[in-house]
Structure formats: structure tokens, C-alpha cells
Amino acid sequence: MHVLHLEDSALDAELLAVRLAGAWPDCRIRQADNKTDFTAALHHGEFDLILSDYTLQDIDGLAALDLAKEHRPGVPFIFFSGTIGEERAIEALRRGADDYVIKDRPTRLVSAIRQALERRRTEDQLKRQAQLLDRTTDAILVLDPQARVSYWNRGAERLYGLAAADVAGRLLGSLGIDTENHAVIARERALLDGEWTGELAQRSLDGRDLVVDSRWTRLLDQAGEPEGILIINTDITRQKEIEAGLLQAQRIESIGLLAGGVAHDMNNMLVPIISGTELAEGELTEGHPARAYLDLIRESALHGSQLVRQLLEFSRGTPGHRRHVGTRHLLEDLTRFVGAMLPGSVELVLAEDCADPTIECDETQLKQVLVNLCINARDAMGKRGRIEISAAEVVHGPDNPPPAPDLAPGPFVVISVADTGPGIPPAMLQRIFDPFFTTKPQGKGTGLGLSTSLGIIKSHGGHLAVANRPGGGAVFRIHLPVVNPSARVAVPVDIPAPTRGGEGRLILVVDDDPTVLKALTELVASLGYRTAQARCVADAIREHLRLLDDISLVLTDIMMPDDNGFDLIETLRATSPDLPCVAISGLANSKDMEIRARELGVTLLSKPPPRQILRQALHQAVGRPGTG
Prior knowledge:
alpha/beta; 628 residues; 5-stranded parallel beta sheet
């Protein structure tokens, strides 16, 4: 132990040294007999204890105490004096002295020193523990029996945004952090049962909604009576958001599986509708009034088929089919489609000066993004407003850098969807594309529309951004790369072929759905072919062996209960290597299917196949051998 002793009496200093050596043999004492020496020792020495007389020649005891507290605030200070007196002793204790001992009764000195050292060790330990509590991310607070805050750590300051000095002595309920009054119940249960644990909905000073995992423990005094409650709150807000997102994703996955099954059956239902309208139209004379109705039915069914294909692609995670599309044509189609979904009080306008560059895109996916933006604009505006869609060409380069670092320089088309609503609060602009983030009421939105839209645009090599308009409202801008200017939008060209060009060749039609099988068979027959039918792979193999020398082509579905169409083709070609085949599927643009079809040299069509497309595929296939 190292002691600093302020004493101007050499005899008293020597007597004190003897007494301390008896209790602490390794004790080292630095004596100072004046203010200058004492001050120098405080500046340059390290001490475990300071002892001081009260009356000295050039400094009094209180002045010495003040110097010690200024330069060595954590070191115990004890007066050892014969002249301090009771009043001076009380003032010294009030000013921060740890104790005082009268020189005439020195026997208490050793115990006073030990108590002071032990008290300081305890205080130091408590300070270290408090520092550890301040470092934790948990909010730790203590309430007195009246539910007033007596302790509030740094974790609580960070979580709630309230400083310890501002909440000390205040009732917990007056802080405004408990949004549902559940803290009252928690306190009652903790006082009654000794503890309570659970989740609480709370709010920070800046208005952030919080969810905390809260533990309340009753504190007892030495008599066993409640003297307060210790509360430890762990912020689990982000964890709950992730859990909600995972649950939402699981629900969406289930819906996706259900949608996939429903979409597959819907696709089969659309085959006879589309085929039937085309067959019926062929029986009517040119100009017959029923043709217009059949055209309407066929166009609606084809549109339904596109939506079904999109559902299948979504539920199975397959990429969409991309082709060259004119921007203005795309936006005109979109305007007609979305216009029917808007109330009469919401005006939808396509800018007259829309640019018309060619882009390569999955038209269905891009329309999905634009429809989502229009519906969001409608919901934001309420009962009345205006949505304006426009397109402009820009070239990103050194003088006009792209809006995102992952965009390559070059020509882009910027499609804008602007509304006259209230705009988006600045705090939400940073989170608008986060998955599961939504400003809509519960049950009105999943928070996936914009995040999905962003993913679609990024997969097209583009960028999606949002900003508030100066005059009010919000504007979403889609940047999409423009294809080579020499490229042109592909226009379907009909390969010349007679309406009944089958020349009596026999085609084996394979499909497990009897209605689809009947529709496809009649459609093939209307093209001048003879037909044979099979409802499964096993039946198809038997029919092929029975009609081995007569079959000119096999038209087969891909997905069937007992096997798939590709395996059927391989089996048939083991016997007939040059057998031409055409396959149809609701997932005809699946990459895996496209690769398998190329390997087998098979024409792959989307289901349901329009009559003209089917005719072309059959006409080409029977004119060339297979590649088995």
C-alpha cells in the first residue's frame, strides 16, 4: 500500500508510520509537510490512500481535501487530526472525506483505513459493472416501489432516445415508451410472482415502433420487502420483421404452389376455347357477324393464356421469354389495359411525345411492373387524380452518367409513371423498395410489389428509381437499355401453307387431359391431317407400334402423370430414329425445356398453341426428318 501523508509534525508522522507498518508491513509512505510538496506529490505520484492533518502552517484541511479530490478523485481521504472538531469533521465528510480519526484515539485508525479501502474497492467494482451495463445493447432500468426510474443505462438511452438525466425520478408510464399499457400488467405480475417475461410493443422518442423481449425481476431489501424492479429489454424489432417476412414468404410460396397447380389446369381449359373459336371461325363465311364475337373470345383467351404462363413462371421460378418490343406499342397496350381498372375520377394519360425505341424485354413482366406502379399511384391519390406515362430516350456517358453504378453507358429509354398524389414521406423513400415494406393497411398489400418490380427491371439490365415531384406527387422512372438501332421489332410472318395442307398424313396426338386431347385432335384434323390419339405415354408407345409405318409425326404434351413427353420422344425414336416430333407445354419458354428440345431436334410450342402457329410447326416438321 502506498500512502501520501500530509503532516507538518515529524513526531506524529513517525508514530503514524510505525502504526501502519504494524498492519501493512509493505506499506510505503510519502510525507509532505507543506502545500507545495503535497501538490507536487498529487501531480506525480500514485497512491492508494491519503491521510492528512487538519491544521497546518500554509494550508488547512479542507483546502487539502479539495486538492486531493481535484487531482486524485478516486483515492480514499481520511483526516488524522487532533484539532478537527465535530463541526469541521461533518463539513469534511460532506465535502467528500471518507472518514476522520482523532489523534488522541489512534486505535480506530487501522479499521477506518480498511473500511475506506474496502468501500472504494466496492465503488470501483460497481463502476466497472455499470460500465459493462452501459456497453450492453440491452436497455437496463430499475424502478423504485412507486415505479419511478432510479437507474437508466446507456443501452436504454440508445434504444429509446431518452437521456438518463431526463428520466431520473420520473414515472415509467410518463415516458411515452409503452404504446399498449402492457407495462402496467408486467409490473403487477413481477411484484406478485417475482418475475415476468414477455414481448412488449414500445416506441422511441423519434417515433420508431419497437418490439422488445422484456424481463422484469422483483428486487427485495434485507427485510425481504420489495424495493424495486429490475427490467432488461432486448430490442427484437428487426428479428420480428424478419420473422414476419419469412412467414409472408412461406405464405407466398404456398400461394405460388397453389397458383402453379391452378394455372396448369386453367391452361388446359383454354386450349379447347382457343381451338374451338378458331375452328368455329373457319366454318363461318367472311363478314359473318359471329366472327367478331369469336375474335373477342379468342383474344380474351389468349390474354388469359399469357397471364397463366406468367403464373406458372412465377410459381416455378422460370425466366420469362424476351423479345424485341417497341416502347410506344407497349405503353399503348398498357394504357388500354390499365384504363379499365381505374375509376372515372382518375385520369390516365400517355404523353403524346413518347419516344419509341426498341427494347428487349419480357413483355408480360414489364407490363406487370407498370401495372403495379399505376395501381400504387391510384391508391396514393385516393378518389381523384392524374397518372401520366411518358418515355424519353437518353444516352448515358461521361457527360450524363447513369443513375446507378451497375448500368453500362449507352442508349436508354426512361419510362416515367408520375401521379398527382401527396408524394412519399422522405423517411420512407430510403425503404420503398425493401421486401415486405408497405405503407398500406394490413391486408391491403404484402410489401413485395415494388421489390419484385425492382428485381424484374434489374434482370433486364435496367434501373428503377423514385422521387417526389416539385409540384406534388411521386414519379417512378424505369431505365431500360435500348437495343441496337439497326434491330427492328420482329413482325410475325406467316409461312405460306394451304389451310388444309396435311395431305392426309397421320399425326399421333398425346395429352393426358381428354378435353385438351379432343381439341388438339380436331385442330390438327382441320389442317388436313389424319389423327390418332393417346392419353398417356404407355398408350402412345402402343399406338406407335400399332401404326409404326403410317405415323408421320407425333404431337405430344410434355408434362403427363406417368412420364414426360421428352422421354416419350426418346423411346419412340429408339424404334423410329427419323420420327418428326412437336412438343407443347405451358412452360415452353423454360430454359431447361428449351435445351432439351434443342438436343432432341424437337419444335417446342407454348400451350395453348394458336392454329396458325401450330400449322406452321407441323408443316415444317413433316418436311424434315428428326435428329434422333
